[in-house]
Amino acid sequence: MNTPSPYSFAPEGHGTKDLHLVTVEAHEGWLETQSRRVRAWLAATGFAAKLGEVALIPDPDGGLAGAVVGHGTAHDRKRDRFLLGGVRRKLPPARYALHHTLDQDALNEETLGWLLGGYSFRAFKTSTPADMATLVAPAGVDAQHLQTIAEAEALTRDLINTPASQLGPEELEQAVMALANRFGGDMSVTYGDDLLYQNLPLIHAVGRAADRSPRLLDMRWGRAGPKLTLVGKGVCFDTGGLNLKPGGSMGLMKKDMGGAATVLGLAQMIMASGWQVQLRVLIPAVENAVSGSAMRPGDVLTSRKGLTVEVNNTDAEGRLVLADALALACEESPDALICMATLTGAARVALGPDVAPFYTHDGALAQALTAASARVRDPLWQMPLHPAYAPMIEPAIADLDNAPAGGMAGSITAALFLDRFVEGVDRYAHFDIYGHQPTSAPARPNGGAGQGARALFAALPGVLDL
Hints:
With 466 residues, the chain is of the alpha/beta class. The protein has two domains: 17-118, Leucine Aminopeptidase, subunit E, domain 1, CATH 3.40.220.10; 146-463, Aminopeptidase (3-Layer(aba) Sandwich). Helices cover 34% and strands 19% of the residues. It has 16 helices and 19 strands. Strands 6, 7, 8, 9, 10, 13, 14, 15 and 17 form a nine-stranded mixed β-sheet that branches. It has a five-stranded mixed β-sheet with strand order 2-3-1-4-5, with helices on one face. The two termini are 40 Å apart.
């Protein structure tokens, strides 16, 4: 028998249990609508509708009648999101129907949270997963839309969580090929020394020291509509190169392809939804390794665009591979260009792990992303492409410096570096994401996490006039 997907809704039917979502503010009024038996039971258990509080309600025969979940105060709800994703695994494995007083955006958020709460990374688990509670799609939600988002987020998380021993450039290529095959897309790949012959020298320089060949993955889907190009950093493991990272900084570097994983999740959302766009996904897939052929500090490299780059730190490799990919993307003048990368520690120092900074010159795009971010609870924050910092990335002996000395404004200078390779495209945005959830939270277990994709999925139809 096929096991239902944790990212799907349950069919309506006999035996469905009631699941009440109750705020602190509405708690007393809600109690008045319940039977004396339920009121007495909840009083005995001390249920007060605190955020995440769960009370199971027995039926007269001692079975399960349903459950009540506390939705806290308005202050609580501003601080936390996806509550139902956190309580899903606290509930007995039954089918539930949600009763609530949520507005549409909050209903979408909590229902999506329920689906995302079904995620776990089980690639290396030998045990059988426990049965989980399921939910009938609440009235008023677009069930297919939410399932599409949840399934795409699961793809992103799975890719980030997979160890580099099982996910190098070749395996990332296979993941992109599987996505292309699933939705009828096309794919081409440029490998190894062919990167030099195809004028992608920075991608080659970063990946040439590894035993696993560097490559550029180029997927296309759709033949009509505006041109949308997604570029994702695919550094499958980052040792730092000859500027070797300390052990404490290397432990999470399997996630350094989080930009690639996130654009693939977004691409899956777009293709599954049948958008009328000409979609292109470009992923420079490399491993930044240490060997005799590794690029050296002080080397000067010439990019696809012709700009020269002084390598002052081999651990600032992500902007190098992205530079060639962005220059290639711009040669087709897409209507919108999105770049996503786990690029700088400076972004984490500035905004922490949960908020992803983005950079753009396009005010309308920035406004659309900011509004969508708030609406779908996908935290983003616009940062400035501050031109006064441009001299920081301009060394004495080359056009550009990949790692300015001093350490100040690291996320901004990285964005300014990439901006030099974007030409002829007005709608461009770069996202400096973390791609990782450091501590478990509702619907977001510790491990890989997509950032920015849901906000983009909500904003781009309006931006592209779809």
